[in-house]
Amino acid sequence: MGRPEFPMHNVHFYKSLKSICVAVVLALSASTAFNVLHNMPRKHKYANFYTNYDPMASFNRMKEGGYLQSCPPSTSTGHTSKK
Fold this sequence. Notes:
Layout: H1 11-51, H2 55-65
């Protein structure tokens, strides 16, 4: 006759192991969902934007709009300095 097994033997261990497994699965699924639903579409939007992006045209728009202090907007006479 062997030793009798207690009904509460290792209950805490198995509940803790189950909780840790659930936490790992939830953490991995949340990070995967965030990557697929947020980061990947954002990367595609950036890639699409920069394939057609013209930095000189953007610079000229900012310069003509007066947003750049170091490059005042062009005047009709062609002179940019004021005397």
